[in-house]
Amino acid sequence: MSxxxxxxxxxxxxxxxxxxxxxxxxxxxxxxRAVVVGCLIGSVVSCTNIYIGxxxxxxxxxxxxxxxxxxxxxKIAGRNISVLETNITQTAGSAxxxxxxxxxxxxxxxxxxxxxxxxxxxGLIFWALSVAFLGVFFxxxxxxxxxxxxxxxxxxxxxxxETILAMFSDAGEALKKAKVLVYAGVGAGVFTLTAHFVxxxxxxxxxxxxxxxxxxxxxxxxxxxxxxxxxxGAGFLIGPRVSFSLLIGAVGAWAILGPxxxxxxxxxxxxxxxxxxxxxxxxWPGVALMVSEAMVSLAxxxxxxxxxxxxxxxxxxxxxxxxxxxxxxxxxxxxxxxAAGTVLATVIGNLVFGIEWWMTVVAVALSSILAIVAVxxxxxxxxxxxxxxxxxxxxxxGGLAPGQMSTNLMAAAVTGAGASQAGDMMQDxxxxxxxxxxxxxxxxxxxxGICAGVVFVVPVYMIFTDAYEVGGTKLPAPAAFAWKAMxxxxxxxxxxxxxxxxxxxxxxxxxxxxxxxxxxxxSIKGYVPSGLAMGIAFIIPAxxxxxxxxxxxxxxxxxKKNPESVSKYDFALASGLVAGEGLMGIVNxxxxxxxxxxxx
Length: 600
What we know:
Strand content: under 5%
Order of helices and strands: HHHHHHHHHHHHHHHHHHHHHHHH
Radius of gyration: 23 Å
Distance between the termini: 53 Å
Number of domains: 1
Helix content: over 70%
Number of strands: 0
């Protein structure tokens, strides 16, 4: 085990730098074992992100979980691993884990499926590789400015570095966290597999058992008891503000607006019908909430835009990098990679999606600018506005390619991938900077992680979409519907809206914009509901929102009873629940394809 030192000589005061660890000369770093373990762990996370992303519209990062599980795996195997190898493990794992989002498999690609496009698996693989690599290459030239000069916080990257150092100071605690994660994962997996054969354990039909009229009515509008482990665990991760925003959105949509629309005849079909039912009507104000908050937040971050584009040196920043010149990423690597990625994206975009070559080139150029904004946003707030970046591109292509919905969606997918991977790469580079790691070696680990993640996530996406309907009960795909709705609106205008949905869109847009504005008021920002979360609650069935609220309530009670235990194990427990159901969900999807049905 490597010792954690806080200064170059191990005893004196640390030099004036934010670097937290100073590795010994020749300390192991880019090893095959660290890359392989990171790729495997991250790929597993990415597969679970496909499942949860198609359910609730967002995904979770893999940095900390890759660091903890990688460290634990080597300890269990009786092998020592260095601090810098652990950093390589989390870098590769983080890159692989982000591929569900970067490849567009949560938003743009399922939106294309909803529009009737059938995309071959090989087309998805080459597309995912090209756009994910672009994001990494966008990030490289920004590193010195945002990490070394501006010294942006990058909360997840900083937390990952702290986690790695904590594990090396207390290996026993790291193993305990890993055990909690594994036990939770196994329990969630067993529950999920059992639910395939006995669905009532996942969604007990209380309204039928108790024969209470009010429960039956509530169940018809989606207010059922649902016990899915992954979303319950997600309730631990998203925090009270987002969780209760989901509750507000669910009640507002499915208990108030929905019944009004049904009673008034604006949505005469069955409740869950997208074509002419309440679900299709609620989609529009839900999307308006999400888009308006994202766009107003983006507008309010104009300083980030200016700083990103001018890259001026901030006060107090500066100083030469602690990393030697030979460990920097050569310009030829990222410039050549950017050129190759652009050519590959252009060719695949034309062959698979029918996008004219110059439109892909414009999308790459626009994405390079928006990726800069995404990187600074992640550095300052830990929030990567992938959705907002995508909506900007959709608006631009509404003018460049009017009526071409596939071009609109896939151009936005380039932006989404660029923002996702650039933000992820910079978080990892921040971790590496704090640990004195080589950016060049992290860059190579990031590329390896992307390749591994693609190999896993594309087949898993194909399995899920073959087994279940995208937009159906199992996979509501709220992010995909938001992207599709924006493309339809830009293509067809307000004719795409059902009766009286325009009025709802206007009101929802005002609420979403106000949410973003009020979040800028420090004294109340913690109490302002999230427009994004409320919008998602309009699109997914109410029981999905409710189970995340249950998870948050349990987390709050746990925190009150034993705050020390929560601070140590909540992330591990939640990650295990998410991963366990996500992985077993793949098995259940295969069983569905094979025709293995429930026994009750």
